[in-house]
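2024-03-11 09:14:02 INFO worker-7 job=invfold-0412 stage=load source=structure_tokens
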């Protein structure tokens, strides 16, 4: 492809408006995540029929989770995401269709693989948009606080995972063992990488044109999301993390200690086997 044409495409991607299509894709995936996380009962009414308010609130917490947590960390109002009535009404309409559409047709369409791929790709484009604007906004508030900038960019891009425990608590579930900080998902790690790249660009350590950097992040998100759906590649960072932990987090020394301990145990067993055992006649003579 001609470099100028590629740059023009990248520039158009940076200027995409998120409402309505990209936001609807985000709301669809969040509401589907809530529905799929609700335990299925063999008898009785579904949770969404018995507790519609709880179901709606938990869905809204995921839909606006990144903004809620980011505002809390920045000392801004946690209710700010809900002041945009257009976004709240759109998210509510998507929630209603996912849970209450006739014959469950909308949810089934959302689970249909080709539709799921399109929705996921749109969602990843929105994720890159959120991370970038979070980095820019935080850099204006705290220009030299690099950790804060990366933190807010990560929270805005992966807020639904961080909000998961609170969303479950609204539905009467408390599973602290699934905390995102205990078991970070690939999305959280990818948002850390994207926030770091945008920060380096702002600090002029990366001198490439902004549309190319932004488009590269979008491709990065979309590629690995589609790879997870089609090929089952859920965490490409895992091999590098394992190597890093083995070298710098004590894994190598733990392995050496286990090897030495096992060798000592084997030597002790061999020494015990070398000790002669007295026969019954020898014991009588004694």
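2024-03-11 09:14:09 INFO worker-7 stage=emit residues=286
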């Amino acid at each position: 492809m001609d470099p100028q044409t590629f740059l023009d495409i990248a520039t158009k991607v940076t200027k995409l408006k998120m409402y309505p299509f990209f936001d609807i894709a985000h709301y669809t995936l969040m509401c589907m995540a809530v529905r799929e996380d609700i335990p299925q009962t063999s008898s009785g009414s579904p949770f969404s029929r018995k507790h519609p308010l709880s179901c709606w609130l938990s869905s809204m917490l995921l839909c606006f989770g990144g903004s809620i947590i980011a505002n809390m960390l920045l000392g801004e109002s946690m209710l700010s995401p809900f002041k945009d009535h257009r976004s709240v009404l759109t998210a509510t309409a998507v929630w209603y269709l996912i849970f209450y559409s006739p014959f469950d047709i909308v949810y089934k369409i959302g689970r249909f693989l080709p539709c799921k791929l399109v929705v996921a790709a749109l969602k990843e484009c929105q994720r890159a948009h959120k991370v970038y604007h979070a980095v820019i906004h935080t850099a204006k508030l705290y220009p030299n606080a690099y950790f804060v900038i990366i933190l807010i960019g990560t929270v805005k891009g992966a807020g639904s995972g961080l909000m998961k425990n609170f969303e479950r608590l609204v539905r009467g579930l408390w599973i602290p063992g699934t905390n995102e900080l205990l078991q970070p998902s690939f999305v959280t790690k990818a948002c850390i990488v994207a926030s770091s790249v945008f920060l380096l660009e702002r600090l002029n350590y990366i001198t490439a044109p902004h549309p190319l950097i932004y488009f590269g992040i979008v491709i990065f998100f979309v590629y690995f999301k589609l790879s997870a759906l089609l090929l089952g590649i859920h965490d490409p960072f895992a091999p590098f993390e394992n190597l890093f932990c083995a070298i710098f987090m004590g894994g190598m020394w733990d392995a050496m200690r286990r090897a030495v301990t096992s060798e000592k145990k084997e030597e002790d067993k061999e020494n015990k086997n070398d000790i002669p055992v007295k026969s019954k006649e020898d014991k009588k003579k004694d």
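2024-03-11 09:14:09 INFO worker-7 stage=report msg="The first helix runs from residue 3 to 14."
2024-03-11 09:14:10 INFO worker-7 job finished
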